[in-house]
């Protein structure tokens, strides 16, 4: 069984690069809590997650910077693998 590519250095480097940009959530437009790290980040809805413009399950490239987006954990989860960017109950901040 192949190793999980999300555990590798290239994926961690992509996450670190995206996190360093300190962008708002691309789905709802609100600020992300970049100060939440470690095990707590895996449970906190406002924590940073790396999302993909084209979901991996639909052929998106895991390590392509052009496909990487910053998102809240809750927004990323709510979107799932849909290609739309509208998250119920939120409005984009322009």
Automatic annotation (TrEMBL):
Residues 78-94 have a biased composition (Polar residues). It holds the Pfam family HNH. Residues 71-94 are annotated as: Disordered. The keyword Hydrolase applies. Residues 35-82 form the HNH domain. Gene3D superfamilies: 1.10.30.50. GO terms for molecular function: endonuclease activity. Keywords: Endonuclease, Hydrolase, Nuclease. The keyword Secreted does not apply. This is HNH endonuclease. It comes from Streptomyces erythrochromogenes. The lineage of its organism: Bacteria, Bacillati, Actinomycetota, Actinomycetes, Kitasatosporales.
């Amino acid at each position: 069984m192949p190793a999980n590519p999300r555990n590798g250095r290239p994926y961690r480097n992509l996450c670190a690069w995206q996190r360093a940009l300190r962008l708002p959530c691309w789905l709802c437009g609100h600020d992300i809590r970049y100060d939440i790290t470690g095990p707590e980040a895996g449970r906190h809805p406002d924590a940073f997650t790396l999302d993909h413009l084209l979901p991996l399950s639909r052929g998106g490239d895991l390590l392509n910077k052009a496909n990487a987006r910053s998102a809240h954990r809750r927004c990323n989860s709510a979107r799932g693998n849909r290609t739309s960017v509208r998250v119920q109950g939120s409005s984009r901040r322009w």
